[in-house]
Amino acid sequence: MNNIFEHFVAENPNSPVIHCYTKRGFDPVTKTRNPRDSQTPDEELFEIRIIDNDHNTYREVMDITMIALGVTEEQAFSIAWEVDHLGSCVVAHAHKEDAEELARIIRVIGIEVQVNPIDPRKH
């Protein structure tokens, strides 16, 4: 396996399909990770938002987002930068169960992660 993401997917075969935001300009990146059979296009999506704090380092945020989301180091730096400078960063959209699982993984480092429904009127 070449990277952390491939290793994570191999260890977690039921990982969700997520839509991941990277860079300060919110360029969407789609990561396909073996969708669950129960998911349908009509299921409500939730956003996963990382909240800034005074104790996690850029490296910690970068490492956990590379593991949880499968983003590159450059993309993970963009997420960490946005969390630090703007106070938070929406890192992914996923169905509720998958969003909660991604949030659980990111929370391992002790950082606050919010999971909120996406208002369909805004998209």
What does this structure look like?
Mean pLDDT is about 75; it is low at about 1-5 and about 25-35. Helix 2 crosses helix 3 (about 75-85). About 35% of the residues lie in helices and about 25% in strands. It has a single domain (about 5-120), classed as Ribosomal Protein L30, Chain: A (2-Layer Sandwich). The termini are far apart. A five-stranded antiparallel β-sheet has the order 2-1-4-3-5. It contains four helices and five strands; from the N terminus they run H-E-E-E-H-H-E-H-E. The chain is of the alpha+beta class.
Tally of discrete structural domains: 1
Elements, N to C (H/E): HEEEHHEHE
The strand count comes to 5
| CATH fold group | Ribosomal Protein L30, Chain: A
Distance between the termini: 36 Å
In this structure, how is the largest beta sheet organized? 5 strands, antiparallel
Class by SSE composition: alpha+beta
Task: State the shape.
Answer: globular
| CATH class group | Alpha Beta
Low confidence ranges: 1-5, 25-33
Beta content comes to 15-25%
- What integer value in Å does the Rg equal? 14 Å
State the strand order across the main sheet. 2-1-4-3-5
What value does the average pLDDT take?
Answer: 77
Question: Fraction of residues in helices?
Answer: 25-40%
